[in-house]
Amino acid sequence: MQTEFNFFQHWYPLSPIEDLDPEIPVPVTLLGMRLVIWKPRYSENYQVFLDICPHRLAPLSEGRVDDKTGNLMCSYHGWQFDSQGICTHIPQAENQEIIAKNRQNFCATALPVRQENDLLWVWPDAKTADLAATTPLPLSPNIDAEKGFVWSSYVRDLEYDWQILVENVGDPSHVPFSHHGVQGNRNKAIPIVMEIVQSTINLTEIFYFSNGNNLVKINFEPPCRLEYLVSIANSEKKLGLILYCLPVSPGKSRIVVQYSRNFAKTIHRLIPRWWNHLKIWNLTFDGDMVLLNQQEHLLQQKQSSESWKTTYKLPTSADRSVIEFRNWFDKYCHGKLPWNEVGISHSNNSLINNNHASLLDSYKQHTQHCSSCREALKNLQRLQFLLLTYFIIIVSGVAIFPDNLRIKIGLPLVITALLGMGIYAWLKLWLIPQFYFVDYIHAKR
Predict the structure, then answer these.
(1) Whether the predicted pLDDT of 169 surpasses 90
(2) Which of 175, 256, 326, 329 is placed for a possible disulfide with 244 were both Cys, Cβ 3.0 to 4.6 Å?
């Protein structure tokens, strides 16, 4: 029987594929390891390497995909690597036989990858590629168009640890309060009676009823997939909330969300993906960020002298999912993540971060990673420029109109220019800032 959980021998989804840039190598961190995602020029598939050039340890994520060969080029000295990590070119080599004779020694470290369910998956242990090939991905059955589901995705970097993230997303009772007005209503909060169906090293299953007769199942498949399946009472309608929780480094995590349903498909197609990100998902994770960042800090302080079992007060059935996760984490992981295996010491920060601007930095945590939000932001900034240019041209032009044309033609033009400036102000002061930072103050919601 397996008694130790190995975080390195599992599949993790690094990002929705639609958010990756095929032209530029992208850095990402998983389990304390710096990785680079890149796409060979003449391939349909992305690759993931350790973000280290074997020559002088420069970051390959600062490299480029070579226009001619399609391989990954290190920007420090121009070494090139193919999709398997094999070094194919050393510009400084007097004799190209040097490359052939030292092929194994000059390799970049390529990790096993898969592309499925619109996600890019990586196996972080390069030494167990054979095991990766026989290990199934932790996929959701609700990401399936043939079953009538539609879905959207979201990715965000978070300012708290993986264990806090899993504990939080597996706790539905916080939603009416942390996410009041976004995904819940504090005035409609009710007790949640949970039943643990099974709990093993590889799977925890929980169910409860919400809003009367809606059956909710929670599946936690360590280390990353935590899924809610909601069956709407007296109907065939189903909702799936699939949350992939990635351990990045101490005090940091990443979440990849897939939200699926088998109804309201027209609305799904009509609402832009970036709008859902701004008005739902960014606000959802903003609602947790400050709370959980401080919670993690205080939990670490208290755990130096006592257990979570006495630090937390967990008297209700709604707390059972938290208790189950903490017991799992203690039993199979000894209550800690494997940072020491990658040479990282987990030290507690001396001060709590009360800076909302850094904790809720939507651009750094989400926009720069999301193709939909990046493109929307670019287009809105272009629209700003066009509206401002139009205003200047119209006002300048009308000023030199003959007197008999200023009222007849000039006035309508000036009115359109002023309306344009109203839109410009709305973009500048309300919409565009939401791609960067929106303060979240619970007391004012």
Answers:
(1) yes
(2) 256
pLDDT at 414: 92
DSSP 280-330: IIHHHHHHHHHHHHHHHHHHHHHHTTS-HHHHS---SGGGHHHHHHHHHHH
| pLDDT tens profile 135-155 | 999 999 999 999 999 999 999
User: Edge-to-edge strands of the sheet including 204-210?
Assistant: 150-158, 252-261, 238-249, 225-231, 214-221, 204-210, 195-199
Rg (C-alpha) for the chain, rounded Å, is: 26
Quote the Cα angle for 335-192-170, to 5°. Answer: 35
Supply the pLDDT for residue 303. Answer: 87
Q: What is the sign of the dihedral through the CA atoms of 330, 334, 340 and 345?
A: positive
The answer to whether the pTM exceeds 0.85 is: yes
pLDDT at residue 88, rounded to an integer: 92
Residue 220's region, left for phi above 0, alpha for psi from -120 to 50, else beta, is beta
Q: What angle do CA 356, 157, 369 make, to 5 degrees?
A: 110
Answer yes or no: are the C-beta atoms of 238 and 232 closer than 8 Å: yes
Sheet holding 119-122, edge to edge: 12-16, 119-122, 113-116
Cβ atoms of 402 and 49 closer than 8 Å: no
CA-angle at 13, arms to 9 and 14, nearest 5°: 105
